[in-house]
Amino acid sequence: MKKINLLFLSLLSLVTITSCSNDDDNSSASIEAKWELYQEGETLSTLETINNSCGLEVLEIKSGGTFKITGYYSSDVTINAAKNVAENKSTCHEYTEEGTWSKKDNKLTVKNGDDINEFEIIELTDSSLKLKETDEEGIWYIILRKK
User: Fold this and answer.
1) Multiple choice CATH, 30-146, 2.40.50.140, 3.40.630.30, 2.40.128.280, 2.60.40.2950
2) Signal sequence: where (predicted)?
3) Top-confidence range, 18-22, 43-47, 84-88
């Protein structure tokens, strides 16, 4: 009976040690990718999902320390002005921004012209990137998912 208990405890220890390993360790996940803006908000519990009829903003973090943001916005335009008929229609427009980035430990710094933004990387996996920005206006959380 003692041998069975010892065997059982040995197996239990082995299972416990094995199950404690972190299979989801994404320390090797690369920040260099195309990331689509998914959610943002003032707290992690009140994040809002981004809905934009023109398209979601995409952040491409490139090797060599450069990045490109492609985003979309809509504007109302008046059509048929020649016929003196005011007809408003929403039109989508694309914009791009480019700059440089650097990462040290869990800090991501992006620079676009004179603008410098620093983010704390809360989580980086193969499928998502969670960032926290703290500035004079407060705290802002951004969730991006790999495109």
Assistant:
1) 2.40.128.280
2) 1-21
3) 43-47
